[in-house]
């Protein structure tokens, strides 16, 4: 693919990466990998421990200025379904949440921020109450999923002296 200035897509990608390296001063990526499982249990064999996502990512990419302004997207991502019961018969679905943050940070004086969460308005289970076996639990007792917040916004101010 050629662009108007005669460069190709590889050159454009390199330019974009350099701009990200120069301009974006903060990139944070947190990954939690949880490999918890039973060890030859008589009832649950080698099943995964219920209620704990195996892979969970949180990433933020912030553009910052010397004046203290910052802005950027963020993502929370539970990559795969995970068991809600120890028997491994009921699962919480995976999800990805996109957000955005904008603000001004000062060492002294007024700081402000605005955060937007779950901009895709996804329905997801933010947490679960693990149970032994979903097959032998009544429908009344099967209320084990905690719904996550839908699209929401928060703002704040801070005064430092």
Topology:
Layout: H1 9-23, E1 26-33, E2 55-64, E3 69-78, E4 82-83, E5 91-92, E6 95-104, E7 109-117, E8 125-128, E9 145-147, E10 152-160
Antiparallel strand pairs: 1-2, 2-3, 3-6, 4-5, 6-7, 7-10, 8-9
Tally of contiguous helical segments: 1
Structural class: mainly beta
Q: Report the uncertain regions.
A: 1-9, 12-18
The rounded Rg comes to 22 Å
Task: Walk me through what this model shows.
The chain is mostly beta strands. The chain has one domain (26-160). Helices cover 9% and strands 42% of the residues. It is built from one helix and ten strands. The chain has one helix spanning 9-23, and strands at residues 26-33, 55-64, 69-78, 82-83, 91-92, 95-104, 109-117, 125-128, 145-147, 152-160. A hairpin with a 7-residue loop joins β4 (82-83) and β5. The longest helix has 15 residues, at 9-23. Residues 1-9 and 12-18 have low confidence and may be disordered.
Task: Pick out its properties.
mainly beta, six-stranded antiparallel β-sheet, 10 strands, disordered N terminus
Quick summary:
Helices cover about 10% and strands about 40% of the residues.
């Amino acid at each position: 693919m050629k662009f108007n200035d005669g460069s190709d897509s590889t050159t454009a990608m390199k330019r974009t990466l350099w701009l990200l390296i120069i301009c974006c001063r903060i990139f944070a990526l947190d990954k939690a990998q949880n490999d918890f499982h039973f060890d030859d249990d008589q009832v649950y064999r080698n099943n995964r421990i219920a209620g704990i996502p195996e892979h969970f990512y949180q990433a933020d990419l912030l553009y910052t200025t010397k004046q203290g302004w910052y802005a950027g997207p963020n993502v929370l991502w539970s990559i795969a379904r995970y068991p809600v019961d120890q028997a491994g018969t009921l699962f919480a679905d995976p999800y990805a949440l996109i957000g955005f943050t904008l603000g001004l940070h000062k060492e002294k004086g007024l700081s402000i921020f605005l955060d937007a969460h779950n901009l895709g308005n996804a329905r997801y289970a933010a947490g679960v109450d693990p149970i032994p076996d979903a097959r032998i639990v009544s429908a009344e007792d099967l209320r084990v999923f905690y719904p996550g917040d839908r699209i929401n916004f928060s703002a704040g101010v801070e005064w430092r002296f």
